[in-house]
Amino acid sequence: MSAKSLTQSMSLLHTWGGLVFGWLLFVVLLSGSIAVYDDELTLWLTPEVPATARVDRGTALDTGAAYLRARHHDARLWRITLPSRRDPTIKAAWRSGKGPNGEQKLEPRSGAPILRQTEGGDFYLKLHEGLHIDRADNRIGLYIVGLTGIAMLVASISGVIVHKRIFKDLFLFRPAASRQRSWLDLHNVLGVLPLPFHVMMAYTGLLLLYWMFLPAGVQTLYGGREPPFRREAITLQYQQLSGAPPGPPQPTLPLTGFLQAAEQRVGSGHVAYLWVRDHDRANATVEAYRERTDRVSQQVPQIAFEGATGRVLRVVERRSPAAETQAFVAALHWLEWGGAAVRLVYFLAGLAGAGAVACGLLVFTTKRRRRPEGGAPWMRLVEMINVAAVAGCCVASVSYLWAERMIPVDAVGRAQVSVAVFFWAWLACLLHAGLRGGRRAAWMEQLGLTGALCLGAPLLGGHVLTHVAAGDGVRIGVDAGLAILGSVFLALVVRLARTSRDSRHQRLDVGAA
Amino acid sequence: MLAPLTSTLVAFAGLFWIAATLTRHERDVAGTPLSPPMRGALRTGGAALLAAAPLPWMSAVGAPMAITAWLFGALPMAGLAVVLALAYWPRAGAWLSGLAVFLRLADLVRAR
User: Fold this and answer.
1) Were A389 and a residue from A23, A74, A246, A469 both cysteine, which residue would form a disulfide, CB within 3.0 to 4.6 Å?
2) Considering only CA atoms, which of A111, A73, A107, A68 is closest in space to residue A87?
3) ipTM associated with this complex
4) Nearest residue of A to residue B63 by CA position?
């Protein structure tokens, strides 16, 4: 195969694969970038929760246990998550053999349940991992996003081959050049500079679900049956719900004692949550898990105790090299480590990826506009979908925040309504793009709407004033982030308006000459 | 938050110096083509800055987290900042790179 034909075939792959998967990739990358701030957004969307929990960890644990004892005495598994730097609430979760599972957030100081129904920032996480199709019901969402991740790897590699000069022109952006040239420059710099990040995220994203995308191991070792594989390889919990019934009643020692014993091993203040199986039974076990904030690993030390005596049953500190490697790879994607600075650069690098996709889609259409196929019906369709997939997705993403802010806190089914608002807003943008013929006006209106919605969201209900008055750093951060993003969108619209006016003048000049 | 910022700024300076030696950009920054010794000095200096950039972050949170975050996150973001600076404000970019180096050196001297 000659070098030329390789470039040509890669070009074909990059162009058409990029077009079809670009539409999906944009929503995955945008929602993934937003999901970097899932806890912060949840906090922002639940104003009733205090910004920081200055509450003793032992007290918090007791609060969670008291709630579970009162409401879910019969549940066989409890999990109590202590307040963390990012999430000040106490989370009490329960699971029964057959009965319902659930989780309730508790106000850290009073222990009162937080009754607001909301997905909070988790909405973007669900959108990112499976287009918000509940993975317990149907795995099609995971598969679609997985396929999109593979397409992202393909596009990254073919892109490097197609745009041969990218490394020479690593820093090249010519805003004053022709429209097609500027979009291509932008596509290149946004795609190439963070290329290691994008490849890493696509790859690690796929490896998170290695048992789905590389099922050979599960097929061979477990006959294709996932539950035993999950029990042995993924869950790694000491206590698991087997068929065995709970033992006879016997009081479990106070949970705070287990917390102290565990923190002596993993460091003071470092236990993130405890699992309790069969509380107040002879066979009760308590297992403490370390937090993941200060190391790049998804697998953390865990210590299991016998509930009735406090005897240590098992300490897991190191795992097999394969498991440790997977834990590192998964942590690269999950980003529970590193704090605010790393969150910010992940957020920006993710947005750069979304921007690269958006510019690539624009290159596709601007390149063809002057060609014979420029006015073809299918090109109008592509332009229309481009607007909706990029600008419409931005409108819908902010609409979700507006819905969450505007639906009364006690409204029935409000969580589902907010999700529905996202999808209806997206559909409305598609219709709008269709009515506008997918042209520049559609772009400018939808990007302008996104900007206005971003700028307006902090003002809804006057919350931004409350945040400033309370000196609530995290929520002010979300307000400020929205204001900055809103300004960027509006600046983009102004710029688009100016260039379209310039090019019209240029055409007129040419006509006059 | 200060150590990550320092590491990102020093990465910006390193990338900016290297970018300023590229044929496409040298006129943007200096106004005239660079002399060969100047070009060599900027390239070497830029590479040295890049190599030294993760150090403040590493001393703050340890090598594994700092290198991962710097390589995947801070370095490309510094690169995009260089792109913006070269396209719109080349002189300001040069000043900022100088400031970054000065601040870093001042930091080192103070630490002694």
Assistant:
1) A23
2) A107
3) 0.91
4) A295
